[in-house]
């Protein structure tokens, strides 16, 4: 049984929709690196878990049953992967993520937005005593400064978390 999981946070079409207020820009390099991460973790028997954010009662951004809450088409998601649908920033809040992490002691995190749902997952997983690695170049915020500050702050306040770039992780 696997004791490691890769958690991919909110790789949703909302971020790639140029008409959305949540458009984060060109994510082609992010997707390419994330797919390499997924493929590496799948080959090494990690449990693969995706989260999606859905805003309850929204008819605009992250609207339930809209195309924009679907996983980005180019991402290497399989039907056998776990999908956690959440309505708040933390993937743990009122979801069954804890159940899917039973027997797991080490998690690898990547996703969009670094400063919101990725950070919240890392903080909540830290409080649950998981060994955590964040793949820095497989995360995205609206701007580089916010991304870098979030990682710097997490590193300063939770020194046990490991922060690696993809090429350092897969070597």
Order of helices and strands: EHEEHEHEHEH
Indicate the structural class: alpha/beta
Q: Strand-residue fraction? A: 15-25%
Low-pLDDT segments: none
Q: What share of the residues lie within helices?
A: 25-40%
CA(first)-CA(last) distance: 23 Å
- Summarize the main sheet: 6 strands, parallel
On the 0 to 100 scale, the average pLDDT is 97
- The total strand number stands at 6
Please tally the helical runs, counting DSSP H or I stretches of 4 or more residues. Answer: 5
What Rg do the Cα atoms give? 15 Å
- The rough form would be described as globular
Trace the largest sheet across and list its strands. 3-2-1-4-5-6
Describe this structure in words.
By secondary structure, the protein is of the alpha/beta class. It contains 5 helices and 6 strands. Strands 3-2-1-4-5-6 form a 6-stranded parallel sheet, with helices on both faces. α3 (114-127) links the parallel β4 and β5. α3 (114-127) packs parallel to α4 (144-157). The radius of gyration is 15 Å and the shape is globular.
Which keywords apply here?
single chain, 171 residues, alpha/beta, six-stranded parallel β-sheet, 5 helices, 6 strands, 30% helix
List the helices and strands and how they pair.
Blueprint: E1 4-9, H1 28-43, E2 47-53, E3 82-86, H2 97-100, E4 106-112, H3 114-127, E5 131-140, H4 144-157, E6 162-164, H5 166-169
Parallel strand pairs: 1-2, 1-4, 2-3, 4-5, 5-6
Helix pairs in contact: 3-4
